[in-house]
Amino acid sequence: MKRVIALVDCNNFFVSCERLLKPELIGKPVCVLSNNDGCVVSRSNEAKKMGVNMGAPYFMIKNQFKKVVFLSGNLPFYCEISKRVMDKLYDFTPDIEIYSIDEAFLDLTGLRKTFKCSYEDIIKKIVEDIKNEVGIDVSVGLSYSKVLAKLACEKTKNLQKTLKEELIENKTYKIGYREIEKELKATLISEIWGVGKNTTALLKKHLIQTAWDFVSQEDIWIKKNLGKVGLDLKQELLGNSINPVKSIQEAPKSISRSESFKEFQTDKNFIQKELNAHIHKVCKKLRSQNLLTGCISVMLRTKDFQISDIKINLVNPVNSEFELVEHSKQILDKLFKKDIVYRSVGFCAMKLTSASTRQISIFDGEESIKKENLSKSWDKLEEKFGKGIIKMGIK
Ligand SMILES: [Mg+2]
Hints:
Elements: E1 5-10, H1 13-21, E2 30-33, E3 40-43, H2 45-50, H3 58-61, E4 69-72, H4 75-90, E5 96-100, E6 103-107, H5 111-115, H6 119-134, E7 138-143, H7 146-162, E8 172-174, H8 177-185, H9 197-205, H10 211-215, H11 219-237, E9 255-265, H12 268-288, E10 291-302, E11 307-318, H13 321-335, E12 342-354, H14 365-385
Parallel strand pairs: 2-4, 7-8
Antiparallel strand pairs: 1-6, 1-7, 2-3, 5-6, 9-12, 10-11, 10-12
Helix pairs in contact: 4-6, 12-13
The structure holds magnesium ion.
């Protein structure tokens, strides 16, 4: 079956993370250094333009680039931001292969129907959500195989190098069937993901320079010289996915939901309503995966991207919004401050356990069972009449 695969890659990831903490660095040349300030591992576009090379040893270049701000790396923080980016991706599909700290492949096949929009529009939403909710810019490559998605993503980045970044509205590059030949002709085989120096040297001997030269070879020849790996590569380059997106189908560690308001907010009731909608979506996901949550948090983000959150442990794990809304109200009372302008609210359910292994507590009582049944009826109503048929009011 034809697949639709995207590669999402965070731009200048470590530098982008640092700029979340220090917004004053936006627009300035910035580099992040490896362990013990050894060498450059991430560069802002400004630093790239000044000619700072990736991997350059700090002691050798610090005097040459006096205007560049060099920062020591903070890996735990980057991991935290990486997790937030990946969590956003899981809002769109479970078919995700986290390839590195700042890259993930997504299998989007069939999601056009689910989201009732084009694949390009889904990606646009992904890019926007990550920017608005996490504060990180990403580039995306879209095509039919992992190899082509990776190539498309490289093209997005090359475009960003040549054009002014703010001029590129859509941070996506798509390689459709009609473009494959043109793209492969314009790409050296050595630039293809997974093609190493030895393979390049071997192919060069046979006058194979571009990726198109490579796919034009007979299968028999490729098999003889490169084996099955070579044949698979040819198929991937032609848009037939051989190497699938390998998602880990483990139970998630947490389920979260957040979204920016259409307009900045100072109205607590409005925020509670938005929060209730998030809680409902999270609970629905919990129930669909037969999970309960034992710990929840509510997060508020101000207009200036300041985050405040409160986490609480629950005595009995639940998956009913009727209980969680009660708890969230108490949290919001503590978090919300008058005169502060808010940008978004989020809800996260953690300490997830399987509902089937639940110990029925003697304190569980009739009340919780009633609430659980009520929640299940809600799911059924939505199945029948569509999302949003019922909304939770504010007491
Ligand atoms: Mg990256």
